[in-house]
Amino acid sequence: MLRFLGISRAEASSSGSTSEIWLLGKCYSVSLEEPSGGADPGNCYAAFLDDFSSRIWFTYRKGFEAIGDSKLTSDGGWGCMIRSSQMIVAQGLIFHHLGRSWRKPSQKPYDREYIEILHLFGDSETCAFSIHNLIQAGRAYGLSAGSWLGPYAVCRTWETLNRLNREQGKESLPMALYVVSGDEDGERGGAPVVCVDVASRLCSDFSEAHSAWGPVLLLVPLVLGLEKINPRYIPLLKETFMFPQSLGILGGKPGASTCIVGVQDDKAFYLDPHEVQLAAEIKQDNLEADTSSYHCR
């Protein structure tokens, strides 16, 4: 069975372990044995923490403008799946624009691409991927302010929001988006199958207005157990974190979603959205912005 660790528990647990850590396709060999190639285990551990804390972290927010016709100015207690999904998409944008090796700089000014990505997820209708716009796009799937939603609904919501943005001539997400599930049965335990022809067509459609072949973001909504994860799925789930294309896994249980980004033995490392912070909106031209609330360390 997997044990789930946030950053503080990850620091305590991983520092005493000698097993490999896989974090979104990157391997960190933390070993007490004589390292090969001159690698320092302590440096490997520090590099893991630097990588982990460079991942974009979205949490509950309070004090933003009311969502739609509701009077809600906070998503505390119900927005964790939305925040987890924002983390997945944000990691995809970071990898696409800045590469897997990017780490949050210790000095300002920051990379323009980094600031522009954070701006997309601000808590305002003017920001393309805000919680406000996600809820509006997800109404057809039962999404409303104050209600929790499952993985199928949130994946389809992103698909709809991406389509609406493209219809308006916006390219906030510079990639095709493929939800690998024919219908909601995929969320009830069915086995989604990636159709290469469909993925190729989506990439081709996206690339019609571009000179290069387009990337694709695969979202796979499914249930891996009823009350808890079926143990037989765990080895395969752990392998996905070895893929260089991995963006993580969002989910958990109803009302308690997290964004899982890495594994080590029986431990899974995650970014937890269940912390209420003040609403934030990063201006896209402010390269000196305070981005500390978007990182867990």
From TrEMBL:
The keyword Cytoplasm applies. Coiled coil: none annotated. Its EC number is 3.4.22.-. SUPFAM superfamilies: Cysteine proteinases (SSF54001). Its main location: cytoplasm. One of its GO terms (biological process) is protein processing. It is found in: Cytoplasm. It catalyses: [protein]-C-terminal L-amino acid-glycyl-phosphatidylethanolamide + H2O = [protein]-C-terminal L-amino acid-glycine + a 1,2-diacyl-sn-glycero-3-phosphoethanolamine. InterPro entries: Papain-like_cys_pep_sf, Peptidase_C54, Peptidase_C54_cat. It is an enzyme of class 3 (hydrolase). Keywords: Autophagy, Cytoplasm, Hydrolase, Protease, Protein transport, Thiol protease, Transport. The keyword Transport applies. Signal peptide: none annotated. Residues 46-297 form the Peptidase C54 catalytic domain. One of its GO terms (molecular function) is protein-phosphatidylethanolamide deconjugating activity. GO terms for cellular component: cytoplasm. Belongs to the peptidase C54 family. Cysteine protease that plays a key role in autophagy by mediating both proteolytic activation and delipidation of ATG8 family proteins. The protease activity is required for proteolytic activation of ATG8 family proteins: cleaves the C-terminal amino acid of ATG8 proteins to reveal a C-terminal glycine. Exposure of the glycine at the C-terminus is essential for ATG8 proteins conjugation to phosphatidylethanolamine (PE) and insertion to membranes, which is necessary for autophagy. In addition to the protease activity, also mediates delipidation of PE-conjugated ATG8 proteins. Interacts with ATG8. This is Cysteine protease. It comes from Ananas comosus.
